[in-house]
Write a structure and sequence with these properties.
It is elongated and about 60 Å long. A hairpin with a 2-residue loop joins strand 6 (142-147) and strand 7. It has helices at 19-32, 79-86, 128-135, 188-197; strands at residues 2-10, 49-51, 60-70, 91-98, 109-119, 142-147, 150-155, 160-167, 171-179, 205-215. The protein contains four helices and ten strands. 18% of the residues lie in helices and 37% in strands.
Length: 222
Amino acid sequence: MFKARMKFAKEGRAKYISHLDLMHAMQRSMARCQMPLWFTEGFNQHAYVSVALPLSTGYSGECEFLDFNITAEAVPENAVEALNDVFPEGLRAIEIYPLADGGMKVGSIEWSQYRITWGFEDGTPKGFADDVRNLFRRPMVEIVKRSKRGEKTVNMRELMRDLSVTDGPDEVTAVVTTAAGNNNMSPEYLTRAIRQYLPQYEIPFSAYHRMNVFTSDGTPFR
């Protein structure tokens, strides 16, 4: 038995799959393509599968990771192709590789890079993109952050970096890196901050797509 890791994408309709349903879909798909999964022993046997930093329902991503145990001596040939043949629409395996030394620890992830899309029904409001850029250039952008431990006011600027904003005729796209792990900040807080500090703009549509995840020194997680 050894541990393997799969990098996968969750896009399109699949972004509405809950985390629990995603786990079921992964296990069913692996069974269909005869992946030699390792199962726990005992009365209620189950496969060990674990996703690093599960996406919120409604988010898409192209840099997601699933760890699982395998009974074979190597990852089966054409495992990626075999999984993609049986995956439901929107799930896509990118690569599968063994973690001979345990691999990078999920706890080492400290940053996530997202693409945020703000869409408008009647065209992008004049000045919106510039006002968003200027808002997040401020050294202090306070917002109430909610967690299981309650609410607290935080300075968003300490939990984000590398923001770029691109405007188009009907939508504005931002690429931003936000804190992950124990001190995470959802990219939705950027939308909340715009509504709080720039109430003159209505945002009827917003979408969030994770592009990459990094360790504290900026190394891409793998």
